[in-house]
Amino acid sequence: MKIIQQTETLQKWVQQQGANTLRLLVPTMGGLHQGHLSLIDLARQKADQEQREAQVVVSLFVNPTQFGPNEDLDAYPQSLQRDQELCEQHGVDLLFAPSPDQMYAHDASIKVSESLLSSVLCGQSRPVHFDGVCTIVSKLFNLIQPQVAFFGEKDFQQVAVIRRLVRDLNYPIEIIAGPIVREPDGLAMSTRNLNLNPQQRQQAVVLRQSLLQAKQTLDHDQWSPQPIKEQVREHLASASLGRIDYVEMVDPQTLQNLEQAQSSILIAIAVYFGNTRLIDNLYWKQPTAPSHENL
């Protein structure tokens, strides 16, 4: 596995690749867990299926521009040596691990913004977050020039924003979203889980439990958004150490709040435990009535 820390060196490496080389990018902020590794494994699997040379590239960069002034940038877990070992074990060809001064000039004055999908959900409580995401992802796309990039569905809104970024800025890149990977008790895997104390960690399972309870309600054809959101809030409130940021029931395509039921629904939640903010979501689609053609 090759490790590069300088943007200039990375650009030279990209130029040296054959014109037919496929590059598959997994952007991360490090602190790798099984969720990240599942995306790397998806990339490795796709690369191995190709009939041409293919390179799996992972970036490790805690991006300061997607953190607000009172957020957890300084507390974000980092473990570079461990991350390097995991990348090598999972068949990564190139690890790009730059420092902030490599990615941003001291007087950087350009950013990439999205104004619709990022205005709701996490964007309401983290107003600078998606500008930072769009900017760093654009820079990684420009530097690495991947044909395929992988993101996790735990960050459903982020995936939607990045798909819009690719569409609107005409990046010739396929975006593949990997499913949420969970701990045995149902908590969605997140690097931030490491910041929870034992009591907070024990109560954090309430996120998944509240979503499963909402799914049961939807499965029983009770689709009215407001009662379901109230049900989720009530269940989340049973965790005494938690503080609800938002509970929303939205259209999975537009991320706009639903006023009435429809055939596909995203329930998205965010909860603080101390200063640690956890997110989770449930994508629900109305079951298709069974066909009687062959009966």
Protein described:
The chain is of the alpha/beta class. The chain folds into 2 domains: 177 residues, Rossmann fold; 93 residues, Pantoate-beta-alanine ligase, C-terminal domain (Pantoate--beta-alanine Ligase, Chain: A,domain 2, 2-Layer Sandwich), CATH 3.30.1300. The chain has 10 helices and 9 strands. Strand 5, helix 7 and strand 6 form a beta-alpha-beta unit. Helix 6 crosses helix 7. The chain starts with a strand and ends in a 10-residue tail after the last strand. The C terminus is likely disordered.
Gist of the model:
The protein has 295 residues and is α/β, with parallel strands linked by helices.
What descriptive keywords fit this protein?
6-stranded parallel beta sheet, 20% strand, globular, alpha/beta, Pantoate--beta-alanine Ligase, Chain: A,domain 2, 295 residues, single chain
SSE layout and pairings?
Layout: E1 2-4, H1 7-16, E2 22-28, H2 34-49, E3 54-60, H3 80-89, E4 94-96, H4 100-103, H5 122-125, H6 129-144, E5 148-152, H7 156-168, E6 174-178, H8 198-203, H9 206-219, H10 225-236, E7 242-250, E8 264-273, E9 276-285
